[in-house]
Amino acid sequence: MDYFLTEDQRHVQALARRIAEEKIVPIRAELDEKEEFPWSVMKVCAETGLFGVCIPEEYGGMGGGCFENCVVVEELSKACLGISVSYAASLLGAYPILLGGSEEQKKRYLSEIASGKRLAAFALTEPNAGSDAQGIRTEAKRVGDEYILNGTKQWITNGGEAEIYTVIAMTDRRKGGRGATAFILEKGMEGFTFGKKEKKLGIRASSTRELIFQDCKVPKENVIGREGMGFIFAMRTFDRTRPGIGAQAVGVAQGALDAAVNYAREREQFEKKIVSFQAIQHMLADMAIQIEAARAFVYAVARYIDSNPRDISKVSAMSKVFPSDTAMKVVVDAVQIFGGYGYMRDYPVEKMMRDAKILQIYEGTNQIQRNVIALELVKEAASKRKK
Questions:
Q1: For residues 152 and 176, is the Cβ–Cβ distance under 8 A?
Q2: β 120-123/164-170 pair status
Q3: Is 363 in the active site?
Q4: How confident is the model at residue 384 (pLDDT cuts 50, 70, 90)?
Q5: What is the overall mean pLDDT for the chain?
Q6: How many structural domains are present in the chain?
Q7: Residues 255, 348: contact at Cβ < 8 Å?
Q8: Angstrom distance (rounded) from CA 222 to CA 44
Q9: Cα–Cα distance for residue pair 101/56, rounded to 1 Å
Q10: Which residue, 128, 234, 242, 250, could crosslink 316 as a Cys pair with Cβ 3.0–4.6 Å?
Q11: 301 and 261 share a domain?
Q12: How far is the CA of 250 from the CAs of 103, 255, 330, 364, in angstroms?
């Protein structure tokens, strides 16, 4: 379908597609096998300006929005989800600064993120605070002109590789979610170290690590906004980045469909190409229908978010749930079409199936997203009744 992209949007789409085909596809299996961070691809993304797609022009970016991010992420995800999330996680780390940072913070950090000179990461999740994000235990105590951070963050994408981190810590536990504050930390700060690199089912090219804070000193100038705004910035960030998860889902599903169609056109059984069998045709047709519906949904939500509406939590959650559930079904069907070969590492769909599962888990599980959607529906119904 034609989604009426502007000339600039078509340009970044073509650029991301070329990077995916020329730079990612040839090395994706090797990086997955070695669990190696894709620095060569990150360098290309930096050189071509892709890291600045969603950063305002005044800070060295292209001035795009949620929609442009989705277009780029989809193309990269067709080739490798592990590499695309390494790219996308830098914007995730930048978003709290975009949303609540001071002018000084924006000038200092966003230009470096936009240029790709330094990667960013976002740190909210902890060993005992995943879906219950308000249950974080990392603390920050004000001591003079500094805050002293103590605690551990877990499963942080780009952990250890990024140099700029937006970290949510509790400054007043008595206030619950309103007692959380957002900070900007830099790799190399005293008391800031990294734990083990996780060994994962999928997205193995990405780096997932613990962040450890032991009396880590952070200047008060590194507070984003003001004390107590951390949880708000975190939720506003996710509202704007969840369509990107949907775009990852659309990308990996499209990659799996493309591979399945090509394989079905070549594979012979009973002296016929298996694409001639109606059972295979129906599977491919259903996969195509589901992907196009997911893409249309993601694009529509991204454009809606870029129009700056007031309430986006419900549609943002929807734009993650439907595409990620779709992607999981599509990649499993792709493996089925490949048959025994699909289960082997010689073909890409085995990796795509392993990679796709994380889409239903990170940035809020799909079960939690359904809670968000249902809660918003109840609020809307109550509001209508009052009127």
A1: no
A2: parallel
A3: yes
A4: confident
A5: 97
A6: 3
A7: yes
A8: 30
A9: 13
A10: 242
A11: yes
A12: 35, 9, 10, 18
- Domain end call among 54, 89, 118: 118
DSSP state of 273: E
Residue 284 falls within a domain, yes or no? yes
Query: Around Cβ 371, how many Cβ atoms within 10 Å?
Result: 14
> Which pLDDT belongs to residue 130?
82
| Per-residue pLDDT band at 81 (split at 50, 70, 90) | very high
How many angstroms separate the first and last alpha carbons of the chain?
Answer: 40
Question: Is the Cβ–Cβ distance between 248 and 88 less than 8 Å?
Answer: yes
Looking at the structure, do residues 269 and 347 belong to the same domain, yes or no? yes
Q: Is 144 left (phi over 0), alpha (psi -120 to 50) or beta?
A: left
Residues 42/93, Cβ–Cβ less than 8 Å: no
Looking at 84, 118, 152, the residue that finishes a domain is 118
Do residues 323 and 293 make contact, with C-beta atoms less than 8 angstroms apart? Answer: no
Catalytic position from the list 74, 75, 350, 363: 363
Same domain, 197 and 52: no
Q: Report the length, in residues, of the chain.
A: 387
Same domain, 64 and 157: no
CATH number for the domain that contains residue 48: 1.10.540.10
User: In the structure encoding, which two tokens stand for residue 384, read together?
Assistant: 């209508």
Has residue 273 got a pLDDT over 80? yes
Domain of residue 195 covers 121-226
Claim to verify: residue 250 and residue 340 sit in the same structural domain = yes
